[in-house]
Amino acid sequence: MCEKFQNQEKDLEETTEQPQSGNKCSFHPSEEVKLYCKQCNVPLCSECCEEGHDGHPTTGLRKAAQERCSTIQALINEGKNIMDSYLTFLRNLGAEEKALNEKKHQRDNSIIQAYNQMVQKLTERKDHLLFKSGENHKLMVDRIQTERDRVLSDVNELSAACDRAEQEMQQGWVEFLSQQTTLTEVVGKYRGKAALTPVQTQPAVFQPTDTPVPVLGHVTVQSLQSAPIPAAPAHASSKDSAVGRGHHHGNQRHQPQKVREFGGEGSGIGQFNKPCGVTVSDEGEIFVADRENRRIQVFTLQGTFVRQFPTVVSGEEKMYPDDVAMDGEGNLWVVSAGFAVQYNKQGRVLRKFDLRHTMRWKGVAVDTRRNHIIITQTTGGWNMPHGEVLVFKPDGTLVRTVDQQQGMKYPQYITVDGEGNILVSDLINHCVYVYNEDGQFLFLFRDFGMDDQLAMGLKEPRGICTDRAGNIIVADWGYHSCVEIFDKTGKFLKHIATDMGRSIALAMATQGQLVVTYADHRVSILQNF
């Protein structure tokens, strides 16, 4: 009995000190758990059933485990899914942090680049101002020197006459009398002259801008939600509503905002001698055909000179560029009386082909969808001109001659709209011809419509281009020396750029600015027209 008691006491101590294992009851260590209380959801031994669970529904432990296995497994799966979503969220946080670091690096580089560009522009502006200051100073000094030379010439003549008279007077009375007539004539000449007036100089004055420190830019946080589209203002006039519906008054005149104007007659950098064709690259570089200077000049959309290159045909031979157009690969096509030459943007000749030699004007456009080079040409004598439009492949192979049955006489500039239609301005017929991409005639237009009270229609149209909406923009050389806008059907919409001079060529930038060359050797960049 002592040995049995000792063994039981030892088992009790082990049960108290160590966690229960197997199916032993935690309340009655000597009893094995065999039942499960459905009401209390706990495993039971026989003594537990008698003490606290009398009358409760029970079932076997194995059966209860089998019944709850699927529920527990579902909870396990749900818990793992939640855990996976948390882990995914943590991974996304890491990726977002990495993206933020990359964006900060890019943003910092953009700030540094903007700073460097501003410093470069300020340096260029400083050099330009110093150059203009030097020009003004030289002009004023030359004016003073010219006046000094003139007065010194008069002084020398008077001094010589007086010196001769003094010498003769000292030599004797007779000789002195012989010089009286000469001296009287010289002195009388200057006695009648007007009094000397001070030289009027106009030294240049430097006026710093009101903002001494230029604004480099802004770092802003973009909204996470798209901004709503604002409703039309309630006070919009009936005229504005009509324009919005496309019913434009024919006599509507509009002065666009002039962003920049540059140029002037000459052969220096940024100066022109008969600027003709113009085109704008997708990057916003303006290429101007500086005809009489036989070169192409390149500017930014802010009017800053970038570079220039001569219109070389081969070797040292240069041509007079009539027009310039951009192809789909970003290269330039330049035409003159005898050649069509393809250059890259830096001015290197890529290819060329000969055109029928004539001294008449040529215009060029590129159908970028088909990679066709389209060139205007005029043949025949001055009294019987005959116009035609030729379509070439880049290697100079003639594809077709556009419909010649419409009596075209002197085509000037040409463009291709977004649908591939070909539009040509005719200087003598005072109209614009429109053909489809296959060269079939669609229509022509020249009138402003019955509502217009300014003129009967186009007069010597020259430059032509289209905007994104398909509207046709024409440089009208004649009656009012302005630019007109027509819709894609040829219906007149409005006059723009009035009283700005005789416009020659037009080009539309991808950002919506209109670039215009003028007969007085300058270029304007217009917007909000």
Can you describe this structure?
By secondary structure, the chain is an alpha+beta fold. It has 2 domains: 65-181; 248-527, Neuraminidase, CATH 2.120.10. The chain has 6 helices and 30 strands. Strand 6 (275-280) and strand 7 form a beta hairpin. Helix 3 (61-171) packs antiparallel against helix 5. It starts with a helix and ends with a strand. Mean pLDDT is 80; it is low at 15-21 and 223-251.
Output the keywords:
30% helix; 529 residues; 30 strands; elongated; Neuraminidase; 2 domains; alpha+beta; 4-stranded antiparallel sheet; 5-stranded mixed sheet
Strand count, sense and barrel status of the largest sheet are: 5 strands, mixed
Oligomer class? single chain
How many angstroms does the end-to-end distance come to? Answer: 116 Å
* Name of the CATH class of the largest domain: Mainly Beta
CATH topology of the largest domain: Neuraminidase
User: Mean pLDDT, as a whole number?
Assistant: 80
Strand residue content? 25-35%
Specify the number of helices.
Answer: 6
Sequence of strands across the biggest β-sheet: 4-27-26-25-24
Domain unit count: 2
* Number of DSSP-assigned strands: 30
Rg, Cα atoms, Å: 46 Å
Sum up the overall morphology in one term.
elongated
State the share of residues found in helices, binned by percent.
Answer: 25-40%
CATH superfamily of the largest domain: TolB, C-terminal domain
- The CATH architecture classification of the largest domain is 6 Propeller
Spans of at least 5 consecutive residues with low confidence: 15-21, 223-251
Backbone structural class: alpha+beta
